[in-house]
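thread from #wetlab-drylab

HS: before we spend reagent money on co-crystallization trials with glutathione, can we at least see a predicted complex? here's what I'd submit
DV: go for it
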Amino acid sequence: MNLFYYPAACSLADHIALIETGTAYKLLSINREKKTEDGRDFLSINPKGYIPTLELDDGTILTENQVILNYIAEQSGKLLPEGGIARWRTLEALAFMSSEIHANYVPFFKDFPEPEKVRACEKLAKAFTILADQMGDRKFLISDEMTIADCYLFWVLMVAPRSGVELPARLRNCFAHMKMRPSVIQAFAEEGLA
Ligand SMILES: N[C@@H](CCC(=O)N[C@@H](CS)C(=O)NCC(=O)O)C(=O)O
């Protein structure tokens, strides 16, 4: 399968999940003109025009980070608790990070007016506190085992400094230990990140 990505963008979560689960994949970047690395028109592949976009071996296209992460987990049988409340907490955390954190990064990515940035900072600070409280003393967000929520969490924490919001210590520590995982080191190398 092909993962369309921009270096250091939210597709990094899916990239890490692919490596963690041992799934075979090919990375394809997209340039400013929305041409893919293998010379195709990206908008004809995904009219939404954004990444992550997953192209399955039969040509099927999947979009939306939460869905792609779920697909990778379901296909591999890894990174998603099989049942019980932990499974729902994982999905809940993905939805929370997407709508309450990722969406509130937009004012910083697109340089919105200051009042919108201030409002976003307030929401982000609250959301980070909620995640840190939820994490408690566990190694990862949901349990001591890594899940797809942690793949997304890693990217969310990596980007947090752009907002200027200080991360709670638990999240800073989680980011530091995840950064040393072989999957993260490999993903950074493959995306050409420092
Ligand atoms: N709703 C999408 C949003 C994905 C998204 O925001 N992707 C950004 C990168 S982090 C992107 O491709 N932006 C480029 C654009 O919108 O042209 C998801 O959750 O997957």
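DV: Residues 84-181 form a domain with the Glutathione S-transferase Yfyf (Class Pi); Chain A, domain 2 fold (CATH 1.20.1050.10).
HS: ok that's useful, forwarding to the group
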